[in-house]
Amino acid sequence: MATADSQGPARQARAFQLARRPKLWLLPTVLCGLLAALLSLLYMGGIVNPTGHLHRLPIALVNEDQGPPPPGRTQSVGALLTGAVLAGSPGGTVDWKQVDAAGLDDQLASGKVYSALVVPKDFTAAVTRLATGQATDRPTLTVLTNPGLGSLGSSIAAQIAQNAAHQASQVTGKELLAALPPASATATGPDTGATARLLLADPFAVTTRIGHPIGSHSGLGLSAFYYALLAVLTAFIGGNMIHSGVDGALGYADSEIGPWHTRRPTVPISRTQTLLLKMIMTAGIMLVTTSLVMLCTVGILGMDAPHPAMLWLFAYCASLAVGLGVQAINAAFGGIGQLVSMFVFIALALPSSGATVPLQAVPGFYRFLGLFEPMRQLSDGIRAILFFDARADAGLARGWIMIAVGIVLALAFGFAMTRYYDRKGLHRWTPQPSD
To answer: What keywords is this UniProt entry annotated with (predicted)?
Structure first.
């Protein structure tokens, strides 16, 4: 009986013939469709309506007014204004933090508030002059922004503070007009009295300025997010490249570069020792990638980085945590490990980072993810280093803690799974019996 070899090369399959098989299409179509739907819902679900999902966005409210209460009132105008602001805020959308001037500086410098509304020291005196016709300009309230927390978050908070100031101005103006005797508005002449009443209808002007400046090479406050993204992406992609490269070098996977295909002899090695090798290589290679990221961004592009040594160390440890996590997941889940790690470190992490859209402006599901997803912890830590003088209470302490937790979890989970597989005799260098 003739064999295939004696008859010549076996007949090769044709692409169009195979494409007619429905079963060949089924699994890839279902998986790709699910992936597209999940990514769309995850990414767009966190940004389509930030103002509609506001939940306790922190904004400072500072009343520096030192003037005595106006005639017939028991409170200064500044106290009336702050009371109107607090009463006019929709429930649960804004977390107004009432602080003094020193507390405001600390809140801005630690990234605890996105904006601030400040009532000046001479506010009551200025309003009194306005009510008696001795002034022609409205007293001014100041809205301070905090661009280090991101341009979008700072902009939303500043807009909220401005709207609150305008609404409180109208409410307070009505109270002042109601308490104003007719003769007081005309004491200096009918025209002046009419002007005073007109100004008192909306007595306060609002001006906006930066409360905590950042450098001009900071991407309008977004450089922290993109630097954190670089740390995660280089670790995620690099970790998967290390995983594939080691498997190819040890003979557990084919190596293909263009038309060249090789399969090395299999090296007998346990799953635990393979994972240890990949983790050692990850720790070494992350030293190179972290240094190159800093060289390119800070050295070549000139990104503002006031604490470069701290930035490098934090970014390296962050990349190490992600890289070790990638190796642990790949070791545990095998062929689908890259997809699982992509969801853990990319798909779920980006929309819950709070770096572009504040966590206070996303649905509750993303706020929950932000408690443990790595991107939020890393971006907060890098933001503290870049914009808030590396203060621990600006997110840096939490970042360090979560990096340590991530490294411990990666080591514990990865080696627990590989040791379990090794004890069960599920070696990679021998074919496994089918059920």
So the answer is: Cell membrane, Membrane, Transmembrane, Transmembrane helix
What is residue 9's DSSP assignment? S
- Amino acid at the residue 420: Y
Amino acid at 318: A
**263-293: buried (b, 16+ CB within 10 Å) or exposed (e) per residue?**
eeeeeebebbebbbbbbebbeebbeebbeeb
| Model confidence pLDDT, tens digit, residues 334-364 | 989 999 999 999 999 999 999 889 999 999 9
Would the pLDDT of 10 be above 50?
A: yes
Residue that the structure tokens 């992509």 belong to: 342
Residue 46, classed as helix, strand or coil, is coil
DSSP 389-423: TT-GGGTHHHHHHHHHHHHHHHHHHHHHHHHHHHH
Q: pTM of this prediction?
A: 0.87
> Contacts for 180-186 with beta carbons within 8 Å, 24 or more apart?
180/131, 184/131, 184/132, 185/131, 185/133
Give 134 or 221, the one with higher predicted confidence: 221
Question: The tokens 């990679």 sit on which residue?
Answer: 428
Distance of CA 74 to the CA centre of its chain: 45
Phi-psi region of 260 (alpha: psi -120 to 50; beta: other; left: phi over 0): beta
User: What domains are defined for the chain?
Assistant: 51-210 (3.40.1710), 219-423 (no CATH)
